[in-house]
Amino acid sequence: MLLTTFRIDYPILRTALAHAPDIEITWERSDLTGDGTQQLLVWADGPAFGTFEAGLEADPTVKPPVRVVEFDEQRLYQLELTPEGRRASVYPTVVETGAILQDATATEKGWDIRAALPDEETLDQYHAFFTGRDFDVELKQLYEDWSPNHSSQSRFGLTDRQHEILVAAVDEGYLDIPRSCSLAELGTQFDISSNAASERFRRGSKTLIENTLSPDDQPT
Question: What SS3 class is residue 33?
Answer without folding.
Answer: coil
